[in-house]
Specification:
Layout (H helix, E strand, L loop, with lengths): L5 H20 L7 E3 L6 E3 H17 L6 E4 L14 E8 L1 H6 L5 E8 L2 E9 L4 E6 L4 E3 L2 E2 L12 E4 L7 H15 L5 E3 L4 H9 L5 E5 L3 H13 L3 E3 L12 E5 L2 H10 L16
Parallel strand pairs: 3-4, 10-11, 10-12
Antiparallel strand pairs: 1-2, 4-5, 5-6, 6-7, 7-8, 8-9, 12-14, 13-14
This protein binds L-MYO-inositol-1-phosphate (LIP).
């Protein structure tokens, strides 16, 4: 029988909960802020410490396996997703929220085999909500099964997006002109939790109809992608083509009607893919 990765999944839930407890306990001293791609792309000692804890636990538990690892804080420039079973980790999704005490911070752990996502775990640690899904087995928040919204009328939707960390005027202009067009459809509202992983769990739980963003990374969305799909939702590239985990852009939605309507309004701008390859046009 093909491996169902049950042991890896169960342990991922355990490690996510442990990492979330570390984040909650991290004191002021740990929130020593550094920056990465821009002055507002923050990273703290907690991000690095939590990723090390996760990776150490995974390596120790599965020491006889040769699993690969993609982690936000251990990726310098680009990362390649191979066919090898691969952990895809964001130790603290919502770092800016964490620094400011804004209450949405998630540990995101996904597992891909042959470039297919097998399971995803998103622990919203300040809310103490464990979102999780295994391919073909449904999506859950703690013990409650999740299902996306059944709304088909965009004018009765809430849409989530984020403005990311790029503050170049031309990109900010495109981001906000897209948001303005969507808001003025009109939709019921635009929201953003500050963490892609949590935003995708809000789509999966039916609280909002769609989340899109250009500029996220594979580690932000890998786990959420499984959770959205297993809750009955769907994912596409922002140009309407198939979802591409490494492209750094995506639309996740409750159904194709909402997804296509959002895609019509998105003003696409260039981002360098996580794997450094040219974008697929
Ligand atoms: C965050 C993403 C969010 C994006 C932020 C940031 P991080 O991830 O989850 O969608 O808008 O700019 O990248 O950096 O907090 O792990």
């Amino acid at each position: 029988m093909a491996d169902d990765w049950q042991e890896e999944y169960n342990f991922a839930v355990e490690v996510a909960r442990k990492a979330g407890a570390v984040i909650r306990k991290a004191g002021e001293s740990e929130i020593k802020i550094s920056t990465k791609s821009s002055t507002v792309d923050l990273v703290t000692q907690t991000d690095k410490r939590v990723e090390k804890i996760i990776w150490t636990d995974l390596q120790s538990k599965f020491k006889d396996k040769n699993y690969s690892f993609i982690g936000e804080e251990s990726t310098e420039t680009s990362c390649v997703l191979t066919d090898n079973p691969t952990w895809i980790i964001d130790p603290v999704d919502g770092t800016t929220n964490f620094v400011h005490g804004f209450p949405f911070v998630a540990v995101s752990i996904a597992f891909a085999v042959n470039k297919e996502l097998e399971f995803g775990v998103v622990y919203s640690c300040l809310e103490d909500k464990m979102y999780k899904a295994q391919r073909g087995k449904g999506a859950f928040c703690d013990d409650e099964q999740l299902s996306v919204s059944d709304v088909k009328d965009i004018k009765k939707s809430i849409i989530i997006s984020e403005h990311g960390t790029d503050r170049s005027p031309e990109k900010v202009k495109k981001i906000f002109s897209t948001m303005q067009r969507i808001l003025c459809i009109p939709v019921h509202g635009l929201r953003g939790s500050g963490t892609a992983a949590t935003n995708m769990c809000l789509v999966a739980s039916g609280a909002v109809e769609a989340f899109f963003e250009i500029g996220i990374h594979c580690w932000d969305i890998a786990a959420g992608a499984v959770i959205v799909k297993e809750a009955g939702g769907m994912l596409l590239d922002v140009n309407g083509k198939p979802f591409d985990l490494m492209s750094r852009r995506m639309v996740s939605a409750n159904n194709n009607i909402i997804a296509q309507r959002i895609i019509k309004e998105i003003e696409i701008f260039d981002v360098i893919r996580d794997d450094g390859q040219p974008q697929k046009t």
